[in-house]
Amino acid sequence: MLRIAHHAAYIHPLREGHRFPMLKYELIPAQLLHEGVVSSANFFAPELAQHADVLLAHDGHYVQALLDLTLDARMVRRIGFPLSKELIDREFYLAEGTIRSSVYALEYGVAFNTAGGTHHAGRDFGEGFCLLNDQAVAAAYLVDRKLAERILIVDLDVHQGNGTAHIFTGNQQIFTFSMHGEKNFPFIKEQSDLDVPLDDGLDDNAYLTLLDQHLAPVFDRVRPDFVFYQAGVDVLATDKLGKLKLSEEGCRLRDERVFQICRRRGIPVQVSMGGGYSTHIKDIVNAHVNTFKAAIQIFDL
């Protein structure tokens, strides 16, 4: 059974300029239901993540400053959102949604968070609309609970997973793989265990060729028993921030490659949706919905 984390608390009041990119978190579940891809029984509502679980990936002083709303103004600007209790709660819901969906993935092979992919949050900083790193928290949780021994984080968002790399630098159990725009945000990058920088303007064929060159070898190298997949759709040609030229079909084929290798090798995978900033919201939602469809088909759910 496909299990999908979704919670009304993902949506919170923001300045009008930030409202549009958040709208997809309402529309993805609605579109999945509208197309009959899933039913309401597939969704679950996470609670707030436990403080101790968040501290497996994040610095205690940083987390406390979030909870107390006392981050300095410079860090707030770096994050890009005005701080509020609702915003902090949202991040704790996201983290718990990814923790729980990762546990469901152990049972069913694949599970989703309709939001998440907050990969710019490092151990002691937030950045780029990310305050807590949901997949990093969940990866650390699985290792801490001895539910996984070797984890591979596959980050195919157009932006480098700098926060994830920062959190797991030197970690021998969690391997970070990021394939991202070389000249795109963040402009000062961290070092992942494997970084594949991409030129602007890459099309489907060039992108998928590079992915094929690296995906199986990194699985062979790491031999993971669990995978986290950051499935940002800001690789689309329609994306305002992405600078790549993938079609919707190219994005779907990207997702298929990740799911196919996990299924063939019997490795459970948790998926968080990551970025997407196309001019038309339908392009974002359709590409995300295709990720769900690919997983359902490949995992026979």
TrEMBL record:
UniProt keyword Plastid, yes or no: no
GO molecular-function terms, A-Z: histone deacetylase activity; hydrolase activity
Record InterPro entries: HDAC_classIV (IPR044150), HDACs (IPR000286), His_deacetylse_dom (IPR023801), His_deacetylse_dom_sf (IPR037138), Ureohydrolase_dom_sf (IPR023696)
Annotated ranges, domain Histone deacetylase: 22-290
Keywords, in A-Z order: Hydrolase
Pfam families, per database record: Hist_deacetyl
SUPFAM superfamilies membership: Arginase/deacetylase
Biological process terms in GO annotation: epigenetic regulation of gene expression
Keyword flag Acyltransferase: no
Protein family: Belongs to the histone deacetylase family.
Protein name per Swiss-Prot or TrEMBL: Acetoin utilization deacetylase AcuC-like enzyme
Organism name: Sphingobacterium paludis
The organism's taxonomic lineage, starting at the top: Bacteria, Pseudomonadati, Bacteroidota, Sphingobacteriia, Sphingobacteriales
